[in-house]
Design brief:
Oligomer: single chain
Number of helices: 9
Largest sheet: 8 strands, mixed
Helix content: 25-40%
Order of helices and strands: HEEEHEHEHEHHHEHEH
Length: about 300
């Protein structure tokens, strides 16, 4: 979290102000919430499209994966204003919850922050949610076109979006492996933790990537199953949206993923926003959020 006592004008103070703005909006209640499993965190919030599509026209589906460093205190409610914003833009929205780090005594990492993620539960849930989604969309989003799906996610959720689109490239023994690419129009990853090697080197989000996978040999051994930068080329249209002023997940992480894609023979779009940090990408009050919606629309419509 940013240092609230940082001097005005510093990067940390700017980040804190942007976070405060993004998290100041009241939570937007979904039209329905549906389980894709038995655990309380295995649910999807559905938002009906409020505009944009013509009469009788089916709306594209945007699947949203929230961020929060895969840590338990940060759930989908903080991104619900963004989900509501997309619904007002005419999209049908599915906001996915998933299991994150454990809570309670002993659930803190070395720096005192909650532990990031659960292995393999976090990945189990995202895979299960995406597998269940086509049928759930048919049941709960009657105005949606399940053939036009764009996957988006912010920060740690951006990682999960890139990973979910690359499941057909996982090692043969991975339980989440699919036999074909996901039926997606594309992925729009927002300030994603997209390259675990670079994120680990930079200490992104308090070393969250290493907490998610485990330390030492676990980190190296699990990266081929979890690191989007090692799962390329996906064959799915992908755009990264990144603020140049982001101090939480720096630009270098997105650039490393784009470079890895290029080396694998795939062109990944990178939209860099000047004077924008980490949180405006999901803040309905920020101009950057409209840019995100337009990037999604270019793939969806």
């Amino acid at each position: 979290m940013p240092d609230a006592a940082a001097e005005p004008g510093t990067a940390a103070a700017r980040d804190a102000a942007e976070e405060k703005s993004a998290l100041s909006h009241p939570a937007v209640e979904p039209d329905s919430t549906v389980g894709y499993g038995d655990h309380p965190d295995q649910v999807i919030d559905f938002y009906l499209p409020r505009g944009g599509a013509g009469p009788g026209e089916a709306a594209p589906v945007v699947v949203v994966l929230h961020g929060g460093s895969w840590r338990a205190p940060y759930d989908r409610r903080h991104i619900s204003p963004f989900a509501g914003f997309l619904a007002r833009r005419g999209f049908a929205v599915a906001s996915v919850e998933y299991r994150r780090g454990a809570e309670g005594p002993g659930a803190e990492g070395a720096g005192g922050d909650p532990v990031a993620g659960r292995w393999p539960d976090t990945f189990d849930d995202v895979a299960a949610a995406l597998d269940a989604l086509p049928e759930l969309v048919r049941q709960h989003l009657p105005r949606a076109d399940a053939r036009r799906v764009v996957l988006t996610g912010h920060s740690a959720g951006g990682h999960l979006a890139l990973w979910a689109a690359a499941r057909h490239l996982l090692p043969a023994d991975a339980p989440w492996l699919t036999d074909r690419p996901a039926p997606l129009r594309g992925v729009v990853a927002l300030a994603p933790i997209a390259d675990f090697e670079v994120a680990d080197r930079l200490g992104v989000c308090g070393g969250a990537a290493r907490q998610l996978l485990g330390d030492g040999e676990l980190f190296a051994g699990r990266r081929p199953y979890a690191d989007p930068a090692l799962l390329l080329p996906t064959g799915i249209a992908t755009t990264l949206v990144q603020g140049r002023a982001d101090v939480d997940v720096p630009q270098a992480v997105a650039e490393a993923y784009a470079d890895a894609a290029a080396k694998a023979g795939e062109v990944v779009g990178v939209t860099l926003l000047e004077d924008v940090g980490h949180y405006p990408l999901i803040d309905p009050a920020a101009d950057a959020c409209a840019v995100v919606a337009e990037e999604i629309a270019q793939l969806a419509w």
